[in-house]
Amino acid sequence: FSKDIIATIDALKALGAKIHIKNDIAVIEGINKSAEKSDIFCNESGSTLRFLIPIAAALGVNATFKGEGKLPQRPITPYLTQLSHKGIVFDYNNTMPFSISGQLLPGEYEMAGDVSSQFITGLLFALPLLEGDSKLTITSKLESRPYVDLTVSALRKFGITITECENAYFIKGNQNFKCNNVYVEGDYSQAAFFYVANALGCKIKLKNLDEQSLQGDKKIIEIINKVCYNNKRLIAFEVDGSDIPDIVPILTVLACFCEGESRIYNVARLRIKESDRLEAISSCLNKLGGRVIATEDSLIIQGVPYIRGGEVDSFNDHRIAMSMAIAAIRCHGVIQIKNASCVEKSYPNFFEEYKKLGGVVNVINLE
Question: At what angle do helices 219-227 and 188-199 cross, to 10 degrees?
Fold first, then answer.
């Protein structure tokens, strides 16, 4: 139960759901009567914010959204453009908190596919609740498509029908979400850190990962199989990162130790995540002796056998902090990661598992 998950749970409670947590089980009673007004604290979770804006709008809730870290600066422009034409009034001044009011209306929606799939997911959750039918047209190449496929699959499990055709989704109105019991599959984006650790010489067994998963980050297995040569050498690679943005930082660590020049391209969107991830990962690795160049939309990495120790900033970004911890496997010295506790955003027990697997972690209080 990471900070992002807790933010989502609290947001749904604010909208009227009842959610009871015991160990690793969540029991959810759906929203019987939505709140008229809600304060929704998203913490630093972009997915919470982008999923819940259209859901609150579909429920007709006057909602105020609050957030921390980089979230107030992360864009919601697609919703400002689309929802403002469909009955929703925004009280928004390019930051948080901001408020929405009104009742979302069905109809024709358009969304660029190269901004964030989270906007598309949010609408796919919300539009079935409306009284009329809707069509969501994707106006450019859909990046991070596997996340949208996961959304459609999840909705299907709860009785919602989404019809997909070329560059569009048709959503019938007046649909009802039906109760279901689900098992949450293991997360390939988190597993990617340990897959890379194995490629760098470790022997970690990864369990509870669905081999038939729709997760795009499952591609980590394919990439590592291509990179590893006779289980002894790591060979440079090129990969389009547009569908797998979450694993780009750890792929950059992998490339850092591959023979030759690697390239990860179509990743300009990573500049507006929890940090500018292209700048963050290249800065960290270069400080430690890596050779990484960040262009506008790609990373070019010259492989080195090892890196040296030193101090790096996590940029308050969970994926940068975890990537640096894995980089320490091929480091001649000690890596000191500032604000490493930011891993709580998605993987609170990361360093506990790191230590259980044989890693050495010492916490230094710099206050």
Answer: 10
Strands 291-294 and 238-240: unpaired
How far are the Cα atoms of 53, 278, 329, 334 from residue 35, in angstroms, in the given order? 14, 40, 50, 51
Paired strand residues for 259? 235
Rounded CA Rg of the chain: 21
Q: Are 10 and 42 in contact (CB under 8 A)?
A: no
| Other C-beta atoms lying within 10 Å of the C-beta of residue 170 | 14
> Catalytic site residue 39?
no
The catalytically annotated residue of 4, 217, 246, 317 is 246
Do 101 and 64 form a contact (C-beta atoms < 8 A)? no
Q: What is the pTM of this model?
A: 0.92
Residue 366: predicted pLDDT:
60
C-alpha triplet 203, 207, 213: angle, nearest 5°: 120
Residue 120 CB neighbours (<10 A): 26
Summarised one tens digit per residue, pLDDT across range 282-322 is: 999 999 999 999 999 999 999 999 999 999 999 999 999 99
